[in-house]
Amino acid sequence: MQDWDGIVAREGPSVWRIAYRLLGNNADADECFQETFMAALRLAGREPLRDVRAILHRLATARAMDRLRQRYRQRNREMTTEWDNQASGDVSPSQCAEAAELSERLRNALAELPAKQAEAFCLFNLEGRSYQEIGVQLNCSIDNVGVLLHRARAKLRQLLSQVGAE
Question: How many Cα neighbours within 13 Å face the side chain of 39?
């Protein structure tokens, strides 16, 4: 039997950070956080969890990527622009708008990557995980992690340069 109160207290902050870094929105991060723990509870009901932290991080990344893809598809249908509301006393409104636009472009590009590439990219670049840790979490070899990261970077470079050329 798992101590879920303890797990939420111990792992909750890192799970929420993963969701927020990917989604950039408190409400979406909160929903992703809840979905992650609900999915982990369902999984724990079927089989014992060996590495709860890794499972939670993978579930959070997958849920956040799903939400990004959903957001991207919805925007394509509606053809609307969403601006992140960022307030800072040291940053001009134009710098704030530019940072929001760059963040949004990266999120949209991440949503177009294959799921495993996006997970590897986020784990390495946003969470600072090593190739070995990513390999364990994604159940693949260290060499495969390198390939996933290389392909993700190449695809992101292509997608982001296309947006900049438009």
Answer: 16
Query: What HEC string does 109-163 produce?
Result: HHHHCCHHHHHHHHHHHCCCCCHHHHHHHHCCCHHHHHHHHHHHHHHHHHHHHHH
What Rg, from alpha-carbon coordinates, does the chain have?
17
Is the CB of residue 6 less than 8 Å from the CB of residue 47? no
Specify the pTM. Answer: 0.54
d(CA 33, CA 63) in angstroms, rounded, equals: 9
Q: Fold for domain 4-84+92-165?
A: Butyryl-CoA Dehydrogenase, subunit A; domain 3 (1.20.140)
Percentage helix, strand, coil for the chain under 3-state DSSP, each rounded to 5: 80, 0, 20
- Per-position pLDDT tens, the chain of length 166: 678 889 999 999 999 988 988 888 899 999 999 999 999 999 888 888 888 988 999 899 889 888 887 877 676 555 434 444 444 445 566 776 777 777 788 888 888 888 889 889 988 887 788 999 899 888 999 999 999 999 999 998 898 887 555 5
